[in-house]
Fold this sequence. Notes:
Elements: E1 8-13, H1 21-34, E2 39-44, H2 51-54, H3 63-67, H4 73-76, E3 78-79, E4 85-87, H5 101-114, E5 120-125, H6 131-138, E6 142-147, H7 151-168, E7 172-180, H8 185-203, E8 213-221, H9 224-231, H10 236-239, H11 244-258
Parallel strand pairs: 1-5, 1-6, 2-4, 2-5, 6-7, 7-8
Antiparallel strand pairs: 3-4
Helix pairs in contact: 1-11
Amino acid sequence: MGNDSRARRYAIVSGKGGVGKTVIAANLATALAGSGLRTLLVDADLGLANLDIIMGINPARTIQDVLAGNFSANEALVRTRGGFDLLPAGSGFFESTLLTPDLAASLENMLKGLDPRYDAVLFDVGAGIGDVVLFFARIADDVVLVVTPEATSLIDAYATVKILALRYGCKNFRLIVNQADPDRPEQSGKMVAARLQQIVSKFLSDKGGNPVRLHFAGALPVDPGIGRAISRQQLLVENDPHGLVASLFPRLAASLRAAPPGSLRMP
């Protein structure tokens, strides 16, 4: 990182809902914490938050309480079984989905106050390309795009890349392919990444400028153990510590740590 006083920020995004983004965010935070990094996971889906649900946590305070000035961010933090801190959000707060200048300033001030305490901060943002999603993506050092092999996932992922590239100048994205072929996850994941890169290169060619690049971080195969972990409100390492998918997250975390920061941080 260019500034040792702040954490490296990762925005975990997906154009389409239902691709496993939130499960990946929670387990990636666990892997980063397990590698020795002080890690914070922020539930940045301010309208339909569910990180607390999938982890079996009943938070007393949320990010909405912090933004309302009722509590400090430190008072809202929850220490998790995965070894990382969680800043939970509430669900069903329509006003939180509208990014006003005041909300943007409050979010950034809150995050600046938390940055020095951590080495890595992950934003689990909502699906789609709303203003709140784009806000968290553009203040991140890295945009981590989660896709599945489904055509609809790739189309929506392309739309997300297009807006971030054209509107905010983001040229580099980390790509995680979820629900890959269980018989050959790495190979099928790379094929999906190549297909999406082909689409991006064809329609987002930047004449004379830097091309938009998707950097393959890894693939996670289809695994029924993921559904069992969700139903039990457990992390993958709790549900099946020796399972294939659980064992892949430290590798994913190492891949993200090794890559140089790739997207733009808001001035």
